[in-house]
Design goal:
9 strands; 2 helices; mainly beta; 170 residues; nine-stranded antiparallel β-sheet
């Protein structure tokens, strides 16, 4: 007797999958605004002397987050431009939350640039990334560029790379 019930249920499931209603009578149960939900972030950015204070509170499908920090221009002269930044972030989600803090230094001039970023997760690992590169003219129509990176993500092996390039425009 159970085999008859099983066969009839399989038959009904297959028949229901093959059934396609006419498009004229199909009513969409979810309006368009439901499928295209917008993110709502609150952002704060204020200049303070040679620096700025910034922050963001927001929400995504993964949960709630908040980020705040301070960026300061250390110098801007013939040596180039050097800026430093310190920031912190808190994320709350269904699986719990995490806190991160970090900072970085960025230097650039007309021919070269360098940066160093570091971040630490509270009760977790530390990640850092350093990068530098430069471009120098060679003659009237050429230039030579050199770039390099070095870094480590928390719990991963160190990564490094380099690139040298010579361009000549005929």
């Amino acid at each position: 007797m159970q085999i008859l019930y099983t066969i009839s249920m399989v038959f009904l499931v297959v028949a229901a999958q093959d059934y396609q209603p006419q498009q004229d009578f199909l009513i969409d149960p979810y309006p368009v605004w439901h499928a295209t939900r917008q993110r709502r972030d609150v952002t704060f950015d204020k200049q303070m002397g040679d620096g700025r204070v910034f922050g963001t509170l927001g929400q995504s499908d993964a949960g709630l987050f908040g980020k705040a920090g301070y960026e300061h221009q250390i110098f801007n002269d013939a040596r180039g431009t050097l800026t430093g930044q310190a920031n912190g972030m808190r994320v709350l989600g269904p699986d719990g939350g995490s806190s991160h803090f970090g900072g970085g230094l960025n230097w650039k001039n007309p021919n070269a640039a360098a940066s160093f970023d570091i971040s630490k997760q509270v009760h977790g690992g530390t990640s850092y990334q350093a990068a530098a590169g430069g471009r120098w003219p060679v003659g009237k129509n050429g230039d030579f560029s050199l770039q390099g990176t070095y870094g480590r993500a928390a719990g991963m092996r160190r990564e490094y790379g380099g690139l040298a390039n010579f361009n000549y425009r005929w």
